[in-house]
Design a protein that fits this description.
The chain is an alpha+beta fold. The chain has 2 helices and 5 strands.
């Protein structure tokens, strides 16, 4: 039996979605659909997302790239047989 994955947005993330470029909102929607369909482990296998664990103040959180500049920051929580992916924010990464 496979575990179910559900994606939830924090209020902080929801409030800022309208400010994102249309292309980034579309990429985020695709990422969310993939996570719910194949799970986080499956999405981490897709090299283009470059899913990685974060360090420092964001220890315990992960990020996945939506484009060269934008990334989604999220936390993973296990509740019974369900995995909840909490999207904390989508931000423009400074290089």
């Amino acid at each position: 039996m496979t575990s179910k994955t559900r994606v939830e947005f924090t209020r902080f993330a929801e409030k800022r979605l309208d400010r994102l470029p249309k292309e980034i909102r579309e990429n985020l929607s695709i990422w969310v659909e993939l996570v719910e369909a194949i799970g986080l482990h499956g999405c981490r296998q897709i090299r283009g997302y470059r899913d990685e664990a974060l360090k420092g103040k964001r220890f315990g959180q992960r990020s996945a790239r939506l484009s060269r500049s934008y990334r989604v920051i999220y936390e993973q929580t296990e509740v019974g047989d369900c995995t909840i992916v909490g999207i904390l924010e989508v931000n423009k990464h400074d290089y």
